[in-house]
Automatic annotation (TrEMBL):
<dbReference type="InterPro" id="IPR024083">
    <property type="entry name" value="Fumarase/histidase_N"/>
</dbReference>
<dbReference type="Pfam" id="PF00221">
    <property type="entry name" value="Lyase_aromatic"/>
</dbReference>
<dbReference type="InterPro" id="IPR022313">
    <property type="entry name" value="Phe/His_NH3-lyase_AS"/>
</dbReference>
<dbReference type="InterPro" id="IPR008948">
    <property type="entry name" value="L-Aspartase-like"/>
</dbReference>
<protein>
    <recommendedName>
        <fullName>tyrosine ammonia-lyase</fullName>
        <ecNumber>4.3.1.23</ecNumber>
    </recommendedName>
</protein>
<dbReference type="GO" id="GO:0052883">
    <property type="term" value="F:tyrosine ammonia-lyase activity"/>
</dbReference>
<dbReference type="InterPro" id="IPR001106">
    <property type="entry name" value="Aromatic_Lyase"/>
</dbReference>
<dbReference type="GO" id="GO:0044550">
    <property type="term" value="P:secondary metabolite biosynthetic process"/>
</dbReference>
<keyword id="KW-0456">Lyase</keyword>
Length: 507
């Protein structure tokens, strides 16, 4: 059970909740309950005193000069969720939508948003009962936060949207009726607190970060196999060599390659080529950019995750209303724009390695296109020829997606939101680049395992590479006669997140 509200969450916490590996709970301490209640009570008192509160007694955004009559204040949150119900595009999948709910709960449970215990309890209930709002992916400019996609959480709470439930998409009213529950009645500011924040981009960023870690690991394992298959030179990863360029992440990748490559095998099966092509020799330098960036990427993502990022904030300690711009998703935008470049470069690295493997002019004696057919059947068979074309296509599309979203700020909402982050678009772009790169990784996993088999070194692998080979062969059979590989490639994409378990067992 993961307690949300008093202590910071990690990226891994969000991913665990998203994957239904952990249920959630709110803090039991009297201090936390008092903090939440104090903020809600302060708002009630301000309303009684006829204080002016943005988004409570005024309209939203450029409409902040519009006064809301006291008898209409309680209707305002409902209107906010309704007029933002214009999201388009593909819906976020269930795992991503669960991450969004978890991230929003984390922010609101910090106690600086003026929301009630009832709202926090209903969000926790959604996660634990797996009643998750269906959220369209498109429509956010990343400031004032993820207004339109987050409106689908607010709308579901009040009984007006669809949810994922028991493997189907159904109206939330059906679930409430089945469970004999009433829709939540949002208090003043609760609609704004739910919607005016960075939960969608941050949730996607958490998932992207963990997937990127698996891509880094897999690409390093694949590189090691390809050094063996292509009779590469292990001295390119020498410890003294890498001590002279002390990027820690880059050194980590070089260390892994040294540890995973079998020196005896390398001595027996080494090309006369003095220096390998860059896609082998410079692999630590390319993969290492992500490894060296993990520290600041995690810092950006987890700081945003554990922040109060709606507006205005309600200070429950000093009893003040604080107007600001914490809904601006610039840090997530920068993190995701940077991440997609790092990952696309790894896709490009893998694409270049596969080009070496299939080309008889540069693969040091491997069969054309890595075909495993007999001599008699060789004229008919084409091995990985089409897979290499597919990898080129996926890599090209990934590279095309790397233009930074954050530089495309658009002035919106009567020029009130005149500089916006585009953080959610950056996060979605990164997700697309990651998926394309996962497809490249799946193809290279099969090709590199096939290559070491054809080279005759698959029985001489180090324990780590042997374990990786067996992991690949759970979803892939060696290609002798041509056959469709789509299902095997997709199975590896689907299993890639489990590569972390393999790594944990080997470390």
């Amino acid at each position: 059970m993961l307690t949300i509200g008093e202590t910071p969450l990690s990226i891994e916490d969000v991913v665990a909740v998203a994957r239904k590996e952990q249920k959630v709970a709110l803090p039991a301490s009297a201090e936390w309950h008092a903090l939440i209640q104090r903020g809600a009570d302060f708002l009630d008192q301000l309303l009684q005193d006829e204080g002016v509160i943005y988004g409570v007694t005024t309209g939203y955004g450029d409409s902040c000069l519009v006064e809301i009559p006291p008898h209409q204040v309680h209707e305002l949150p409902l209107h906010l969720s309704r007029f933002h119900g214009c999201g388009m595009g593909q819906n976020l999948d269930l795992t991503t939508a669960r991450a969004v709910v978890a991230v929003r709960l984390c922010s609101l449970a910090r106690g600086y948003s003026g929301v009630s215990h009832s709202l926090l309890e209903r969000l926790a209930w959604m996660l634990n009962e797996n009643v998750i709002p269906v959220i369209p992916s498109e429509g956010s400019v990343g400031a004032s936060g993820d207004l339109t996609p987050l409106s689908y959480i607010a709308g579901a709470l009040v009984g007006e949207r669809d949810v994922y439930y028991q493997g189907k998409i159904v109206p939330i009213t059906q679930v409430y009726a089945e469970k004999d529950m009433q829709p939540l009645v949002l208090r003043p500011k609760e609609g704004l607190a739910l919607m005016n924040g960075t939960a969608v981009m941050t949730a996607i960023a958490c998932l992207n970060y963990k997937k990127a870690e698996q891509i880094s690991l897999a690409s390093t394992l694949i590189t090691a196999l390809n050094v063996l298959a292509l009779e590469g030179n292990p001295s390119h990863f020498d410890e003294v060599l890498f001590a002279q360029k002390p990027h820690l992440g880059q050194q980590h990748i070089a260390t892994q390659l040294r540890d995973w490559l079998n020196s005896q095998v390398q001595t027996e099966h080494q090309s006369s080529r003095l220096q390998d092509r860059y896609s082998l020799r410079c692999a630590p330098h390319i993969i290492g950019v992500f490894e060296d960036s993990k520290t600041w990427l995690r810092q950006f993502i987890e700081n945003e995750l554990n922040s109060s990022n709606d507006n205005p904030l309600i200070d429950p300690v000093n009893l003040r209303v604080l107007h600001g711009g914490h809904f601006y998703g610039g840090h997530i935008a920068q993190a995701m724009d940077s991440l997609k470049i790092m990952i696309a470069n790894i896709a490009d690295l893998m694409d270049r390695q596969l080009a070496q493997l299939v080309d008889y002019k540069m693969n040091n004696g491997l069969p054309r296109n890595l075909t495993g057919s007999s001599i008699e059947r060789l004229p008919l068979n084409h091995g990985f020829k089409a897979v290499q074309i597919g990898v080129s296509a996926w890599t090209a599309e990934a590279l095309k997606q790397t233009l930074s979203a954050s530089i495309f700020s658009r002035s919106t909402e009567c020029h009130n939101q005149d500089k916006v982050s585009m953080g959610t678009i950056a996060a979605r772009d990164a997700s697309r680049v990651i998926l394309l790169t996962e497809q490249v990784i799946a193809a290279l996993s099969c090709a590199s395992v096939q290559a070491v088999k054809l080279k005759g070194v698959d029985t001489e692998l180090s324990p780590v590479l042997t374990a990786f080979k067996h992991w690949v062969l759970q979803s892939f059979n060696y290609v002798e006669e041509d056959r469709p590989l789509q299902n095997e490639l997709q199975a590896l994409v689907d299993r890639l997140e489990n590569l972390a378990l393999l790594n944990s067992a080997l470390v």
